[in-house]
Design goal:
By secondary structure, this protein is an alpha/beta fold. It has a single domain, classed as Alpha/Beta hydrolase fold, catalytic domain (Rossmann fold, 3-Layer(aba) Sandwich). An eleven-stranded mixed beta sheet has the order 3-4-1-2-6-5-9-10-11-12-13, with helices on both faces. It is globular.
């Protein structure tokens, strides 16, 4: 979700380039954008005879990456309207580069790749948790980030650029419908088919690389809620991780598959929807609260806002309004460690003591039963 930034200032000389922390896994990372058209979902917003379209990015462990360029966090065509909408001068700094090499060949170290879907927050974009996404990919996961059309900043192959619609609100159930379209695309890829609507050439090795029987999902904010809605609607998702999801509209159905909730603002103590949802988790479950965190601590803002603050002159109070008082270095380590531990346990069967309770390495992660 967008938050207002400080007053816009002119771009400083040289257009400073932001950076993201490098992933810690043993593998290089590849990424490819795909255009998905779900012909089972008519799109009345687009017009008669049109079907719902999505852009997704598939991140994966890669090989022979040297001749494949790194892709930016966001392309300029979507970064500029996004920065304008959140109150920053779009010329003040350049997009950071991700760790993803564009369409590099897939590394198959052994067997198929477990899959994790990612769902972004309201009025946001699919790059919002790139730190988490590329971390998982560097450890051997295929991670598919979903751009939820009409509630995101997205560019399509034909040149169309869409920004979040204020007149077409999309709730978590609509996000979940998008996720189910992507689950179908995962099955297509796993079967060796190309789900791209335009027949885009796939990276070498991507067809048949994904494991359709080991799928998890993670989401931030509305995307966290959408993760739960997707699991309730579709048992292809084996496990879900919510980053500060509001859990509204109210969820009254039981869910017996593993769910981990990590919270900052939308807590059981302060939010009745979150408190009411917790008893409906009847299987493996964990609840961890980040002390001193703000809602955006779970996003790439944890890395980018401290850098932006020095470029545009944000006060310490401005910075804390975005990312709270949690040490950003710890916040980034949390983003890299806990999602990996969760999916290692749930999709690969590798138990992590990090999920058993408090860890001296992460003193601000408070587990509650």
């Amino acid at each position: 979700p967008a938050r207002p930034g400080p007053p816009a200032k002119p771009a400083p000389p040289g257009h400073p380039v932001l950076t993201l922390p490098a992933p810690t896994g043993p593998h290089r990372v590849g990424v490819v954008d795909l255009h998905i058209v779900d012909r089972t979902r008519p799109d009345p917003v687009a017009g008669p005879g049109r079907f719902h379209e999505l852009m997704i990015s598939v991140w994966y462990p890669a090989r022979e990456t040297a001749r494949y360029p790194l892709v930016p966090w966001m392309p300029a065509v979507t970064l500029q309207p996004y920065l304008t909408d959140v109150g920053f001068d779009p010329g003040a700094f350049a997009s950071p580069l991700s760790a993803g090499h564009d369409s590099a060949p897939v590394l198959r170290a052994g067997g198929r790749l477990p899959v994790v879907l990612y769902s972004h927050g309201a009025h946001s974009h699919r790059a919002d948790n790139t730190v988490v996404v590329q971390e998982l990919a560097s450890h051997g996961y295929a991670v598919i980030t979903i751009a939820h059309t009409y509630d995101t900043y997205v560019a399509f192959p034909d040149g169309r650029v869409l920004t979040p619609s204020r007149s077409q609100p999309m709730g978590p159930p609509a996000f979940a419908a998008d996720a189910r379209s992507v689950l179908d695309a995962v099955e297509d890829l796993a079967a060796g088919h190309n789900p791209d609507a335009d027949g885009k050439q796939l990276p070498d090795g991507l067809a048949t690389a994904l494991d359709p029987h080991r799928i998890g999902m993670v989401g931030w904010s509305k995307g966290g809620t959408a993760t739960v809605y997707t699991m309730l609607a579709d048992d292809r998702v084996a496990a879900g991780l919510s980053f500060d999801g509001p859990m509204a509209p109210v969820i009254t159905a039981d869910l017996d598959r593993p769910v981990m909730m990590m919270t900052a603002v939308f807590t059981r103590e302060d939010d009745p929807d979150v408190a009411g949802f917790w008893p409906h988790l009847t299987g493996w479950r964990r609840y961890a609260h980040l002390e001193g965190a703000e809602h955006t601590c779970f996003s790439d803002a944890e890395s980018l806002i401290p850098q932006i603050s020095t470029i545009v002159g944000m006060s310490e109070q401005d910075v804390e309004s975005y990312i709270g008082t949690l040490d950003p270095a710890e916040g980034l380590h949390i983003q890299q460690a806990y999602p990996l531990a969760f999916f290692e346990e749930q999709l690969r069967g590798r138990h992590s003591r990090l999920l058993d309770g408090p860890s001296p390495a992460f003193p601000d992660v408070k587990f509650e039963s």
